[in-house]
Amino acid sequence: xxxxxxxxxxxxxxxxxxxxxxxxxxxxxxxxxxxxxxxxxxxxxxxxxxxxxxxxxxxxxxxxxxxxxxxxxxxxxxxxxxxxxxxxxxxxxxxxxxxxxxxxxxxxxxxxxxxxxxxxxxxxxxxxxxxxxxxxxxxxxxxxxxxxxxxxxxxxxxxxxxxxxxxxxxxxxxxxxxxxxxxxxxxxxxxxxxxxxxxxxxxxxxxxxxxxxxxxxxxxxxxxxxxxxxxxxxxxxxxxxxxxxxxxxxxxxxxxxxxxxxxxxxxxxxxxxxxxxxxxxxxxxxxxxxxxxxxxxxxxxxxxxxxxxxxxxxxxxxxxxxxxxxxxxxxxxxxxxxxxxxxxxxxxxxxxxxxxxxxxxxxxxxxxxxxxxxxxxxxxxxxxxxxxxxxxxxxxxxxxxxxxxxxxxxxxxxxxxxxxxxxxxxxxxxxxxxxxxxxxxxxxxxxxxxxxxxxxxxxxxxxxxxxxxxxxxxxxxxxxxxxxxxxxxxxxxxxxxxxxxxxxxxxxxxxxxxxxxxxxxxx
Amino acid sequence: xxxxxxxxxxxxxxxxxxxxxxxxxxxxxxxxxxxxxxxxxxxxxxxxxxxxxxxxxxxxxxxxxxxxxxxxxxxxxxxxxxxxxxxxxxxxxxxxxxxxxxxxxxxxxxxxxxxxxxxxxxxxxxxxxxxxxxxxxxxxxxxxxxxxxxxxxxxxxxxxxxxxxxxxxxxxxxxxxxxxxxxxxxxxxxxxxxxxxxxxxxxxxxxxxxxxxxxxxxxxxxxxxxxxxxxxxxxxxxxxxxxxxxxxxxxxxxxxxxxxxxxxxxxxxxxxxxxxxxxxx
Lengths: 523, 281
Hints:
The complex is a heterodimer.
Chain A: H1 3-20, E1 42-49, H2 54-70, E2 74-81, H3 84-96, E3 103-106, H4 108-114, H5 125-129, H6 152-156, E4 159-160, E5 163-164, E6 167-168, E7 170-171, E8 174-179, H7 180-185, H8 196-205, E9 226-228, H9 231-241, H10 258-272, E10 276-278, H11 279-282, H12 285-290, E11 296-300, E12 326-330, E13 341-342, E14 347-350, H13 356-368, H14 372-379, E15 385-386, H15 389-392, H16 395-402, H17 413-424, E16 429-430, H18 438-457, H19 464-477, H20 493-522
Parallel strand pairs in A: 1-2, 1-3, 9-10, 9-11, 13-16
Antiparallel strand pairs in A: 3-14, 4-5, 6-14, 7-15, 8-11, 8-12
Helix pairs in contact in A: 2-14, 9-18, 10-18, 18-19
Chain B: H1 2-19, H2 40-51, H3 74-79, E1 85-99, E2 102-109, E3 112-120, H4 123-128, E4 133-144, E5 147-161, E6 167-168, E7 185-194, E8 196-197, E9 203-204, E10 207-208, E11 220-225, E12 230-235, H5 245-251, E13 258-264, E14 274-280
Parallel strand pairs in B: 6-7
Antiparallel strand pairs in B: 1-2, 1-4, 2-3, 4-5, 7-11, 7-13, 8-9, 10-11, 11-12, 13-14
């Protein structure tokens, strides 16, 4: 082998190395196979989240069993989580090793981060509309909804970068669970639309104490009239209701604004009196509500089975529960004529694999989770709403809604009222823009409230100086400067030198090749 | 000449290739940043390792039991209001969990116990927190669902070791005074495993998660009785994971078994001990 050949070989090797030195194995784009191969066995993994709720676990298990009967060549392995954050972390860890699950319950915010990997998440556009294996497809072995039978707004929440990267699984919103008995005992009448002003006014009134230090309203030593479970949602909804900035689809972060400061000031003023606290600081709103120590408990509609004097799920001993009337309201509003509330709930994404048939098996299982049996069954475990119009309009689901209050289990009235809240206000729901970093921004938004509440409780101030300082702390804590639009700046000096070195190398190779060719020609 | 050129070009290329391996963690390349939530694997790995740890810390350095200047006595800590700033010294009795540079610890001194929740702690410092190690903690007193804890805290490692002997609180289980021993290392004797009812009405010796919705690796809940009252005890999977003796021992319990137990007197809307050992009699 002469020198030229050696150099050429080296150059080819280098080129190969160069193409492989950036990141792990990248998968090819997924293309929908013309047919599903049911002669080969596929084992797929499904990472699911349950609300520490045995009924939900059973629905997953039953769904898998029924699906495997329809598709004997597919085995579904279920891995259960009780926390979306843990699913997110595990997926991130497994992307690096190409060991993602096949199907995963997740949030669109999280999918945006998964998508920073190459071809990690399967775009579902072609699968959704495939005439054979898409929604309601001719070759699908179960009664799946058609695309038109999906709730359009829930489907649109699964669209990222103009493509569907998920299908919705369940939807919920937040609700304010109100102790109506206490509100009326304080001399107030509940309005048609709950406003922030009303809640603050009633909450302050509830702070009146007896001479012995107990609270006049409940004769107990504890009273926190207003407790919010998810302070990220609290901030996001308050900003939306006031038309203030939170973020833009391109990743521009707007939450650190004057409206945010005003809202934090408002919160701080009610922390001072003890009228407001949060789940992270004091505990579950439901426990305080059911013990008669809270009047307005804001939590997900998916937590409705824990709310109220007759709640089927309880975390406090029976002797601590007081009797009261529970009513379910949308979250407090700034403008009653323009109600705004968050749409939330799990979605399903399918991860890409080398074998398109394995992806097809995954998609078929994901689609099975949209059948009426799964949708209605799971929605009844909490205050969830099915994501298909097919399930929502089914006689079985309508009968379920109509029987609210018949018992304190399946037909628990607070739970069904929570579901109705979302169904009746679906056109007033919104979601926040999804981008790589939007999950961190959400956490940061809640942290602003948590920090303010803690600061005031500990005797600190809540003024502009404090807010400016806290804004910087929170930006840093959640690495918000590393997301969204980033100015990359000039190349470092070392990179310039090394890239020049590469250029010179190839230039010399080219010159040598030309020199050799000319020399041979002359010879 | 050819050899020289070939070697030169190869060397240049090797240098360039070496340079394209990016070890710049704060650079401008796109990356996945799980910024807001910790690595589950790290958590599990750490807690699993910890449960095996029975550190040979020196016991009974009496000088170490004295409080330093500016440090609260346990009585002063107990008297402090929720949200007050507190400065305490205590001895590590158990490492509950570590993730995202935050550690949760059970501390104790001869007068009482402390639960330090999500305290700032780098991994290298976490490794120094052996059982019995004395530390000084500065934070804020907090209460979450009845559990008194120290939140938003920082700590310093100090000289001294002490490991608490368990206090038998069996006779105090139904007493209002039990809460005075909150978070202490305690023991229970001659309690009987009672049935825990799952949501289908089945009688079980234990459940994974409170309602049986979990699986092996999750927290275990089981019910004990002293003959008059029943109490829910927990094997907390971060504190003692499924590889530990206590986890496996509880998985082997049967209704009617009489047991002696040790653990930490955790509180969640009432007493809910985190059990660290079980002996079937």
